[in-house]
Amino acid sequence: MLELQEGVTLSVIPTQKFKTVRIFIRFTTTHERRLASQRTLLTSVLETSSAKYPRQTDLSAQLAQMYGASFGMNVTKKGNLHQLNVAMSLVNGKYLSDERLLSDGVDFLEEVLFSPLTKDGLFDEATFELEKANLIEYIESVQEDKQALAGLKLQELYFDTSSDQGVPSFGLAQDLRETSNADLMKAYQKMMAEDQVDIIVVGDVTQEEMAQLFSKWPFSQTKRVQPDIFYHQDFRPVVSEQVLRENVTQSKLNLAYHTDIYYTDEEVYALTVFNGLFGGFPHSKLFMNVREKESLAYYASSSIDSFRGLVTVQTGIDGQNREKVMHLISEQLTALAQGDFSQQALLQTKAMIQNHLLLSLDNAQALSEMEYMHAWLPNTRKTPEEYIEKVMQVTKEEVQQIAKKLRLQAVFFLEGSEKHA
What pLDDT score was predicted for residue 417? Predict the structure, then answer.
């Protein structure tokens, strides 16, 4: 990793696996409720126009000229962080005998980020209003995806003491409605001046040539923030519960467990194996017993969040089976705590974790994410072989200890209103 200036880093992953070069730029700041929706709108405005390319068709034409390069922006969140992502993939010019292609791609990104389409110190008003309306419509449409809605409601319930953490990465429609063009410009200026910036390039390129290209970018020489990546929330002895009734045929029962295990903890390897046995894979207890054997769920799975210390369970069920499913999920957790799983299941889980990791090594975005984590948490840097070895060393007893640590904290139930009536 090379620090181009304070708070702006460049990491190059040289590889001949791909015929393309992938450029990934991440602007990172603390996740805050109102800022989340503004930064999401910012991605829409910036990726549709710029001073040199005032219309979306102009941007598309330039991408087509670069042999069909792909370009896009989005937002994500990880723990305490809000991340605005910029990604471009273009064919390596070496295979086209076009030495300018890579620098053209970097110039395109510089234009989009540093020269937005503005007038009198604000974003182009027509673009701002159109993208704002489109984003509000999109955020409101998420309510129609009941599986996504249940996940968001569980998050809101679990983090009910934090107005920031309970909000999704794309923010809230109500905050977006209150966002003015001036607010958006302020969010843009704040991002460009204060965010930690990580530039990660994957492809058959060298650090020297990429440093030469990116060192020309006119980043302001300002002090940039690097917030703590982890969000810690204490366990509360009372389980938070919420029931929402809607006219849906399939009810959703989602649970959140407090773990207090984080990405930098040694226990995270055992947590990963536990999750595979609990609900992470098709041979897991939730899948096999709740969905297959008892036929009480259309889907049943679990996932871990090692940046906020929790495990979540997601199920789609018939509303009348709610208590049965709750009991059965609890039984699977108890079974794991008591060591009621075979050596074969343990080995199969470890093998699947290994396969997932090895497959990710053929994905440029996955490699970028790994490099980002290494930059933020250098003490966690491990080769794939070292990580696999840690997973393989996890014992049955360690998995049992993880299961015993989980404590139910939140229950969200989306119930079909017709059936309830």
Answer: 61
SS3 annotation, the chain: CEEEECCEEEEEEECCCCCEEEEEEEEEEECCHHHHHHHHHHHHHHCCCCCCCCCHHHHHHHHHHCCCCEEEEEEEEECCEEEEEEEEEEECHHHCCCCCHHHHHHHHHHHHHHCCCEECCEECHHHHHHHHHHHHHHHHHHHHCHHHHHHHHHHHHHCCCCCCCCCCCCCCHHHHHCCCHHHHHHHHHHHHHHCEEEEEEEECCCHHHHHHHHCCCCCCCCCCCCCCCCCCCCCCCCCEEEEEEECCCCEEEEEEEECCCCCCCCCHHHHHHHHHHHHHCCCCHHHHHHHHHCCCCCEEEEEEECCCCEEEEEEEECHHHHHHHHHHHHHHHHHHHCCCCCHHHHHHHHHHHHHHHHHHCCCHHHHHHHHHHHHHCHHHCCCHHHHHHHHHCCCHHHHHHHHHHCEEEEEEEEEEHHHHC
With 0.90 as the threshold, say if the pTM is over it: yes
CATH numbers and ranges of domains, the chain: 2-215 (3.30.830.10), 240-416 (3.30.830.10)
Nearest to 396 by CA among 335, 344, 346, 325: 346
Beta strand pairing call for 196-203 and 122-123: unpaired
Quickly state the pLDDT bin for 421 (edges 50, 70, 90). Answer: very low
Pairing outcome for strands 8-14 and 122-123: unpaired
Percentage with pLDDT > 90 across the chain: 88
Are 396 and 339 within 8 A, CB to CB?
Answer: yes
Closest to 263 measured CA to CA, from 307, 310, 312: 307
Distance CA 16, CA 37 (A): 38
For 105-163, the pLDDT digits (tens) are 999 999 999 999 999 999 999 999 999 999 999 999 988 899 999 999 999 999 998 88
